[in-house]
Structures are given as C-alpha cells and as structure tokens.
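A quick aside before the break. I want you to see a complete sequence-to-structure record at least once, exactly as it would be stored in a machine-readable document. Don't worry about memorizing anything.
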Amino acid sequence: MRRAGVWAMAAVAVFVTMPSPVCYGNELQAMTQSKYPIKVFINEFSNESGGAQVQIAPAEFMKEVEKAFANRRSVSFAIVKTPQESDVEVSAAIKSYQYMEKDPVKPSLSFIMALDAATSENYAEMVVEFTVKDTKSGNVAWKDTITSYVKRNMTPAESVPVVYDRSARDFVAKAFGKGE
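That is the input. The structure line, written in tokens, reads:
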C-alpha cells in the first residue's frame, strides 16, 4: 500500500511540474463554442532563433498560420486585415529551429543495423512561443510555447515549409481546440 501511495505522489509531482499553456480566462473557449467565425488578426511574427541553419522568414510562417486557420473545420475563422475588426490578435516568436541529418537519439547496435536497411530520414524541430490577445479587452487570452517535430526525407531548405506547416497546425489545434 505504501508503495502505491509513493507512486501516486510522484505522478502528481510530475503532472504539476509539466508546463502548460497560460490561459487567462474563458474567452477562447467561449469563442470556439460560438457558431460565428472568430475574426483573427495575425500580427508580426519575429525570429529570435539566432544562428539558424536555414534562414527563417517569419512572413512565410505567418502564411502557414493563415492556412491552418482556413483549414480548421471544427471552429470557423475569418482572417481580417486590422486589429480593430478582429476578435483576437495572434503573434509569435520563433525561439529555435534545428535541422538534423540523423536521429538525435543514440540507438543500440542492432537498431543501427535495422536502420541501415531502411530509408534514411531527416529531422526538423521548431520551438515557437504563441500569444493570443483578446482585442476587445486587450488582455492576453492564451500563451504557450509549442515544439513541433517533423521526421521525413528532406533537405534543410525543404524542411522549413514542412515544419512551418506542422507548427501552425499544432498551434491552431492547441489554442482553439474545442473544450480546451
């Protein structure tokens, strides 16, 4: 019995220390339940990644976020041109980008031999801090750092649009998912 109690306490400690999105109210949840489109203004995105292996253009990433909003079916969105006509304003800061030729995990010898027989894949990872601001109240409604990871056969130049797409879809699903 004691052992089960210790494991339960350890699980609670791990759960409590896990990072989670900062939600400042129920504004987004109420908006996602609405039958009306959420009007979104996409503000400037910044690149804080420093010495990236591939030049990252925040304007291209903004276009992928727009596409992710347009392709989301469970919630209706409308992209608007000015913050004054929006319900929410989205901004983002690209914190890091990494392209890897090989898997960053050190596999065992038998796993390496199996990998040699398989096709080679490359890896790209991008970390982005997203902020969603309620433009009516001026308050931050949601903020989180999202890490997106892509594994496929690609060059460094090909990896950028692929990881942009993945990160944009991850963000829209996480921030505007129904019931979150």
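Two observations worth writing down. Residues 4-20 have pLDDT under 50 and may be disordered. The radius of gyration is 20 Å. We'll return to this after the break.
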